[in-house]
Amino acid sequence: MGEFKIVGRKAVSGEHRVPGNKNAALPMIAAALLTAEPVTLENVPAIADVEKMFACAERFGATVTRDLKARTATICAKDLRRAQLDPALARQIRTSVLFAGPLLARKGRIHLPPPGGDGIGHRRLDAHFEGFRTLGATFAGTRRSFTLRAEKGLSGAQIVLDEASVTATENLLMASVLAKGVTEIYNAACEPHVQNLCGMLNRMGAKIGGVGTNRLVVEGVDALHGATARVGCDLIEAVSYLAAAVLTGGELTLVDVDVPDFEIVAKKLARFGVRWASDVAARTVKVPARQKLKLAYDFGDAIPSFADGPWPMFPTDLMSVLIVLATQARGTCLFHEKMFESRMYFVDHLIGMGAKIVPCDPHRVVVTGPTQLGAGTVTSPDIRAGIALILAALCAKGETRILNAESVDRGYEAVDRELSALGADVRRV
Q1: Average pLDDT, stretch 318-344?
Q2: What domains can be seen in the chain, in order of their start residue?
């Protein structure tokens, strides 16, 4: 198990290029299996989860050609030899389940073990299975594996998701583009990475309407063709580096940012006194140095509450980052994590570093700042908690050890090297 050693209170300053979005790249890799022709992805992030998705695609018989320097990958699924995935590989990544839609559409069947992923709480798959059944597939499964069959093909239908699940929306989209007739998906997720997938599928010949809304209309086609698609910028990564600069008093320019998406989180960040200047044309966000963080209270001087939710609400993947920011801002606030009951457990590490945090229940914590954090030894339980602990270490006094460094590698490109290039004291051991 690797670890990070971080000496805090070093300003994070300079210019940082924001890589491709992890949450867009993973379903786009799966979608490439919908056609026998080559599909090229641009701006592919060099992270562990992407490598695992490529490994899954290759197990299904696809060929993958990478150009790491150019950040491109070409996937050709001309000959899909298998309709099942090894349990050991599936357990390494949550989005292994996203191969269900493409394989069901092209091969008429798919056998998958349960997907892995971060232990942030119960992550149900019922919306996927109910949607596939509505499209005409049969389902059989246990906790150890599940099988979907549609030997006679899929047929368009009206699907009402019982939750705005991102992966369920993506899986059903990929299955429905080759289904006979029209499919309508209500209560669909509309995050930027879902829009990214829709754009890719339409370039491949799909007919998807309502992109960016919670009602997607898909007119099935007989076949898809090859195409080139670009992975959008990683908003979560961009805000994480912005927070690193703000917490350490640095001046930072974020390059290759999808500014309109960034503005969705702007109001929450501004409540803590975070300032920046954005340029849509140049695709940059510039963060000034030495910002004073002070929480803006609600009307009547009431303590504010911050909650996550489906897009365009605040992303759950940024809750951990915002909590660390709150430990350094003057004021008190409540955080309400509505989506995952185990995401908040990492705050025990922050409390051990000196943060003034009161856990209310698995979903809510109260944070009062500012507090000078102290160094310690902590363990990263998942990607987002891991980057939050790194942020805490960057503004803490002394040297902090963060164990299980590999968990962060799943979603962030060489975070130790990138932060070191910006002036932080971060070493991987």
Answers
A1: 93
A2: 3-19+233-428 (3.65.10.10), 22-230 (3.65.10.10)
